[in-house]
Amino acid sequence: MGDETTTVESQETTETPQGGDLSPEAKGLLKDLQAERERRKETEQRLLEIEKAQKEAEQKRLEEQEQYKTLYEQEKEARAQEVAELKPLAEQWTGYNEKRRAELLETLGDDATSFQNLGLAELEVVASKLTTKREIPTEPGRPGRGAPGYEGMGWADLSAAIARGDMKARDEIHRRNKLGIR
Q1: What is the mean pLDDT of residues 43-63?
Q2: Residue 119 lies in a domain
Q3: 31, 61, 65, 136: which sits with the fewest CB atoms below 10 Å from its CB?
Q4: How far apart are CA 6 and CA 23, in angstroms?
Q5: What is the Cα–Cα distance from 58 to 65, expressed in whole angstroms?
Q6: Which residues, at least 6 apart from 120, have a Cβ–Cβ distance to it below 8 Å?
Q7: What's the number of domains the chain is made of?
Q8: Do 51 and 85 have their domain in common?
Q9: Nearest-angstrom CA–CA distance, 171 and 141
Q10: What is the rounded radius of gyration, in angstroms, for the C-alpha atoms of the chain?
């Protein structure tokens, strides 16, 4: 046993930055890593030089062939053709919008000046609301009695009518809620 401990103690050691010692194997690995790091740096530098040379060669090739000008001209022609195709459609749409605005403003009469700055969609909404004629009932209803035909209905019957899509039943429920009828 004593011989083994002296053999370990006699091996060469180097201090690490943390204060420990490195074995000969660790020293060899460290040298290999440092050498590998240097090779990687050299390889990266060569790769950057190769990429730069390739870019310069490609640019010279394009300049010699003047392909960039040809590509630019082709793209320019394609855009001009697309504009030529879409321009009549844009003019047609603009004409429709102007015609529709004029019609809507005409239906508003004296109020037209108040709504001139609105967009077409907003103008259509305003015009439909202001020009819609509301029906005046020919027979006077029974104020406070609800919609005809619903006064005898219970809550369940009204709910079923709403489920069928009867909007007057919905109005009757709202009326009853406002009046506090349960």
Answers
A1: 90
A2: yes
A3: 136
A4: 15
A5: 11
A6: 97, 100, 101, 104
A7: 3
A8: no
A9: 15
A10: 44
- In this predicted structure, what is the pLDDT of residue 14? 53
Residue 104's CB is within 10 A of a number of other CB atoms, namely 21
Residue 3 has pLDDT above 90, yes or no: no
**54, 91: one domain:** no
84 and 107 assigned to the same domain = yes
Residues 78 and 91 in one domain: yes
Q: Are residue 77 and residue 49 in the same domain, yes or no?
A: no
In a domain, 10, yes or no: no
164 near 175, Cβ under 8 Å? no
Q: Which domain holds residue 39?
A: 26-65
Residue 37 lies in a domain: yes
Q: 3-class DSSP state for residue 21?
A: strand
Q: How far is CA 180 from CA 29, 69, 147, 176, in A?
A: 90, 81, 16, 6
Question: In which residue are the tokens 């370990």 written?
Answer: 8
User: Mean of the per-residue pLDDT values for the chain?
Assistant: 79
